[in-house]
Amino acid sequence: MSSLARSLDLARARDAADPLQSYRDRFHLPTAADGRPLTYLCGHSLGLAPLRAREYVAQELDDWARLGVMGHHVATRPWVGYADHAKQGLAVLAGAQPVDVVAMNSLTANLHLMLTAFYRPHGARTRILIEAGAFSSDRHAVASQIAWHGLEPAAQLVELEPDPRSGVFDEAAIEAAIAREGERLALVLWPGVQYRTGQAFDNARIARAAHAVGALAGFDHAHAIGNLPLTLAADEADFAVWCCYKYLNAGPGAIGGCFVHPRHTRDDRQRGLEGWWGHDAATRFQMDPGFVAEAGAAGFALSNPPILSTAPLLASLELFAAADIVALRRKSVELTAFLEALIRDCAGSQLRVLTPQAPRQRGAQLSLQFAGGGAHARAVFERLAADGLVCDLREPDILRVAPVPLYNRCEDAWRFAASLETALRHTG
Questions:
Q1: Does a structural domain hold residue 53?
Q2: For residues 413 and 342, is the Cβ–Cβ distance under 8 A?
Q3: What is the pLDDT of residues 283-318, one digit of tens each?
Q4: Residue 46 forms part of a structural domain
Q5: pLDDT for 91
Q6: Is 158 left (phi over 0), alpha (psi -120 to 50) or beta?
Q7: How many Å apart are CA 276 and CA 298, to the nearest integer?
Q8: pLDDT mean across residues, the chain
Q9: In whole angstroms, what is the distance from residue 349 CA to residue 372 CA?
């Protein structure tokens, strides 16, 4: 029996023993145009649809049709307080109290709102530190906020480069960069998981380093929430933002989320832009001109939430509550390690796993960098797609693949490795 055949037997045995195996059946699994099942390993980009998402959206459509405007108060889940239904689930995943999280807007809109509140350049303290190669939307937001204050982004935006040999960041180097900027630094904005490499970071360590020099620490958790157990309150993060369409499976363009540390919501001086839905809920409809902030992170909201965009998130959060993020993380560590071992066994020197190997430094995502460069990476990617594998390519030469513990299994990892071995043999 071949090594790959033995690995398939092992994969199936592990799947049979998996206490979370039934959650796969609670998602729609994509199929090709001819009806054959696809192997979906792209949850780092867009999570799969929970079966109940359709039911949740249909309920709101039915209530709208049946009730019209009265649905704001008497729908199955009244629309006026609709975002509140997501608070408990998001709080558990963020490691915070429900009052300190809010479902609202989209990722970059929330980032802009947080920057208006927390980036207050004054005197020599004007700089923002981010990682070089940050997700472009984050960089656009930060650069435009600097310019909005009448400053020059080229001078005030500090982009820390990764280690040139490994392609990832040494956390001591992040601390050193923060210390080096010192009193010139207003804010550190860092990812929980870097989108391109899949590297995860110690949020508490970064926040401590920022606070030690008098700066604030914010985090983009688009690739972290629902992927890793987070402890934002204990980490002393000043704020965090995220989208809900990746590991949170809320659908394309879904509502985003935000965390604000309670020390800031107790201080009106830290408040940024204001809107109707951030007003105290008890007096919001009195339409008084003065602004009275709603308690906690909800005080940063601007408008009423998009009901049809939020409904699928509620369906997904039910699954997280039932499965438990700690149990999901345990499975994720084992599943990702299994995938990595198969990749290393079949790929040899044709690619390197860019994502750090230590579990504490990664989530479900593995980023594979091809020694043959962009043309080789593209050829392999296309071969995988033709074979029914769904992952993605980040130009020029990085293939990203993520076995998500809610709906992926060891056999999916094996199928990827088997297809990769074939693709490498035919494209090398």
A1: no
A2: yes
A3: 999 999 999 999 999 999 999 999 999 999 999 999
A4: no
A5: 98
A6: beta
A7: 11
A8: 96
A9: 10
* Residue 176 confidence (pLDDT) above 70: yes
- Give the amino acid at 128: I
Strand order in the sheet with 398-401: 351-353, 366-370, 398-401, 392-394
Listed residues 321, 344, 370: the one ending a domain: 321
Q: Which of 291, 338, 319, 307 is nearest to 407 (CA)?
A: 319
410 has a pLDDT exceeding 80: yes
3-state secondary structure of 246: coil
Distance of CA 400 to the CA centre of its chain: 14
In the chain, how many domains are there?
2
**Residue pair 251/49 in contact by the 8 Å Cβ criterion:** yes
What residues have CB less than 8 Å from 348, skipping those under 6 apart?
none
In whole angstroms, how large is the CA radius of gyration of the chain? 22
| DSSP tally for the chain: helices H, then strands E | 15, 13
Query: Tens digit of pLDDT for each residue in 226-248?
Result: 999 999 999 999 999 999 999 99
Query: Distances from the Cα of 211 to the Cαs of 11, 49, 217, in angstroms?
Result: 45, 40, 7
At 316 the pLDDT is 98
Domain that holds residue 7: 3-37+325-427
Phi, psi at residue 406, to the nearest 5°?
Answer: -70, -35
CA distance 410 to 340: 11
For residues 202-216, average pLDDT? 98
Residues 99 and 246 in one domain: yes
* C-beta separation of 363 from 228 below 8 A: yes
